[in-house]
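Please, structure for the following, as tokens.
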Amino acid sequence: MSRSGELPLELTDGAFHVAEARHLGLPPGRVRRGDLARPFYGVRQAGSAPESTRDRCHAYLARMPNGRVFSHATAAILHGMPLPGWLERDRRLHVTVPAGLRPPQCTGIVGHELRRELRDVEFTDLLPVTAPLQTWLDLGPVLKRNDLVAVADFLCAGKHPRYQPSELVAAAERVPGRRGVRALREAASLARARVDSPKETETRLLILDAGLPEPVVGFEVLGVNLPFNPHVDLSWPAFKVCAEYEGEEHRTDRRRFRSDITRRERLEDVKWRVIRVTDDDLQNGGLELIQRIHNALVERGWDPTS
């Protein structure tokens, strides 16, 4: 029988607290054996230590009292929000406790005390987490403007978004004096519906920061010879100019690559000027990309002096 087989059945599926092991009659030496991972103080788990944020949250549940909730960057990851790489790589879990209680002090945990405006908590994969809007508010002091707008756009994405940009504006107005509130208000004012990706957000913000007219997000182009009316990423319909962000999948997926060619040609057939954007175009402030867009708009009748 393997060492892990010596454990009671109740302890072989997921993490457990050493107090639970003692309650089940395990001798103290058993929980100190090398076949058990120690993801957090007082927590053991058969096999290797959990790696993903979701798995580490499940492991921490073994010692997390009721009423506590995963929050901040941890909640953002559990919700699938786009975060900068440095924050995604931070293995610490953020846990918020009710007002008046002492936040957890444990290696691998960042504790926070509940603020009065926290009202909305939900469960993701049986894990208690702050709701997406509250999570975005909590990220206000942490993220830079573009990253905060990318999360805001994420909340308002899709055909049936959970939030509208106006709701983010209202939420940021309800927390005066809070750390990061100015960044939240700016990000809320820049949030738009139907944004497809963080790179699209980055492209749009580069355009705005360069002083070019704000593009329309997700504009539906009519009269195109395709089975459907395409929605272009960013566009200036009055000038029939659009910018389409192309990620790696546009290049590596053969079917997507061929579809993109057809789509572009059909848009050009109805006199649209299509500007293709890749990640390389966004480097160093996107200066060359901004010039291309500027030139295309001028060629189509935009007057930069008006």
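The mean pLDDT is 91. The chain has twelve helices and twelve strands.
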